Amino acid sequence: MPTINKSYNINNEEKSFKKFTNKTTNEHSTGSSNNDILNEVIKHQVALKSFARIIENYEDLIELDTKQYNLDSLFAMDIGGSLCKIIFYDCNIENFDNNEIKELFNSLKNNIFSTEDYGFSGIRDRYKSIKTKNGCIHFILFETQRVKNAVELIFQNDIIKNIKQISCTGGGSYKFEEYFREHYDIEIKKYDEFKSLLTGLNALLKYSPNESYHYKIDNTIISDKPIPDVYDADKKSIFPYLLVNVGSGVSVLHVKDENTFERVSGSGIGGATFFGLVRALTNINSFDEALQASREGDSSNVNMLVGDIYGGEYQSFNLPAEMVASFFGKFAKNGTMDKASDADICNALLVMITNNVGQVAYLNAMRYNLTKIYFSGNFLRSNVIAMKALAKAIHFWSHGEIQAHFLKHEGYFGALGTFFLNNLSK
What we know:
With about 425 residues, this protein is α+β, with helices and mostly antiparallel strands. Helix content is about 40%, strand content about 20%. The chain is globular, with a radius of gyration of 22 Å. The two termini are about 30 Å apart.
């Protein structure tokens, strides 16, 4: 089994991220156009790797290391519309009381840890693994359209015969329920999506140091590296907070305490909106290319700025000249569309989407008098450009009084919470 504390090797890391970026786009980019965005992603993940990856002082979770397991309880799934997230817990072999199950467990581990790359779209996020006292939690990702292949790739025939039930959340727990039952004689044990999401998030915010991080902003200059948040359990509670989950769309949750939360807002303008409009307005057909183009483009060739209207800043309301007055406003004039490149359009779209999400988040934080805003969701997975844009948006709308906080395990909280709910008695 590979250790999660291997020394850093830039070639291995680049190879790993190229695998991921190739797998999660509909069409692969070619040539060297992705080098800049890939290098930024690598630097971002290297910085996150330096954060602690353990669970400590976790009296509420100690049962993970003391209970007797069967193969069923080692897994949990969150099957979303685009991605299927899988948790695998590598427990101590003494947590099994049956020698036959111990042998199957070793066979299962050999199968899972023989690679980080499963078929066309599967990947094990090695750098996200978390150590418990006697075990390790691992995170695996598949495209939802290949979830059927995921089962066959991870489970060998002799293993799958010993799995009778898998805990699961997300829409896919309903969509694939009959398939699992008919083809593998496996029952799906369903858990509420938001309950699972918050169970996983709250556990890591409380017990895993540096789960959340932020970017430092001085005026309009943003730091290159993520800065870990430090949580002192003796001084303050993690509650209340606002959780903004950015996926295809956006959901906003007001989390009051461990057991009380409500969905207070949302938006239909999210990650799928960004990529859908990119494909509609440009010749770009992959998400990675869209991010690279966003990095290189100039949205001022697309957006109408305050300076375009007033010839400079609008001093009466302290609006800077470079502030957007109207997204895509310049396209309303004849002869302007030909002057904008695909990269300019991608940059304008990313600025528009993230500013909208940031404003929705800020207004809800003000509505409920909250000072902590966490952003999660797979749209932000390795999307450094979007995270920095959100950080700037929150900084701007709050006049620097509120920071945007991001999460290392951004898309895995639903699967992790499902695992906890299935294995912990409280």
